[in-house]
Amino acid sequence: MDAVDSRRIEAGDGTPELHWQHWLQARALPRVAPQELLPPGARAVVVAPHPDDEVLAVGGLLAHAAALGRRALLVAVTDGEASHTGSTRWPPGRLAARRRAETRLALARLGSGAAVLRAGLADGRVAAQADALHALLLRTLQPSDRVFTTWTLDGHPDHEATGRTTRAAAAQVGARVYEVPVWGWHWAQCGDARMPWAQAHLVTLSPQAVARKSAALQTFASQWEHDPGCAHTPILRASMQVRARRPFELVFA
Q1: Backbone angles phi, psi at 117, to 5 degrees
Q2: To the nearest 10°, the Cα dihedral for 18, 21, 22, 23?
Q3: Among residues 35, 61, 173, 240, which one has the fewest Cβ atoms lying within 10 Å of its Cβ?
Q4: Alpha helical stretches, state H, 111-237
């Protein structure tokens, strides 16, 4: 089994959240407040491979950014049009439009006025288009930005390519970048050595931010609902809604 296979996203809910909660409490990872991650003058930039990844990763932080009066930008790498391959209900064009609308509603529920920059890359093919994403980020990022993206070993090819490309562009610009596991919580076991725990920080969320994040995640109905034409749906699992109610988010610095 190669490294990618060892991070494969299987069906089901993955590692139970209760196990993660117990392990994380025992680990006592360092904590950081949202205002420390987003000091005055900093812009929060979230580079999300698919619609919903911005909420799953740092929806609570985006809610805090709005409350703190920080500027925010969402770089939407793809429109997520490939999640329902072969579906008659959700052909790619219709699904892309639906997922763009879901993102707009999710940001509203977060209370976020984040600007949205759509890269328009093909869902499932981010690695093949990494040069285009890199060029876009070089034109967009600023040294004072705080950049949040998916972890480079998250288990989904688009997540990993987005993370690698974002980290490279941020380094070139001089912006601070943080990687966030999304699918890693699903395939990894508690204490899994493949996750860089030495770089992990817990971002403390207020109850209001947690409530906003949970409500925002519910807007992605296309990903929650079962499509009879797609055996692998729903894409989002019940375990993800449970994780969305954590009073923290985890970032790798």
Answers
A1: -110, 115
A2: 120
A3: 35
A4: 130-140, 157-173, 184-187, 207-217, 221-224
Distance CA 220, CA 235 (A): 10
Cα separation of 31 and 59, whole Å?
A: 17
Identify the band that residue 172 occupies on the pLDDT scale cut at 50, 70 and 90: very high
pLDDT at 3: 47
Which whole-number Å values give the CA distances from 102 to 96, 134, 237, in the listed order? 10, 26, 17
Instruction: Tell me the per-residue pLDDT of 148-157, one tens digit each, with 9 for 90 and over.
Output: 999 999 999 9
Poorest-confidence range of 5-19, 76-90, 186-200, 238-252? 5-19
The continuous run of DSSP H or E covering 57 comes out as helix 53-68
pLDDT for residue 232 is more than 70: yes
**What is the pLDDT, as a whole number, of residue 82?**
84
Which amino acid type is present at position 148? F
Question: E strand or H helix at 23, and its extent?
Answer: helix 17-27
Give the pair of three-digit tokens for residue 46.
Answer: 């979230």
Residue with tokens 């930039």: 45
Provide the token pair at 226.
Answer: 């079962």
- Return d(Cα 102, Cα 142) in angstroms, integer: 28
The amino acid that residue 152 corresponds to is T
Count, residues in the chain: 253
Distances (CA, A) of 128 to 75, 77, 131, 132, 154: 18, 13, 8, 9, 18
Is the alpha carbon torsion for 141, 143, 144, 146 positive or negative?
positive
CA distance linking residue 6 with residue 1, whole number of Å: 6
- Residue the block writes with tokens 């409530």: 211
Give me the torsion for CA of 108, 169, 80, 21, rounded to 10°: -70
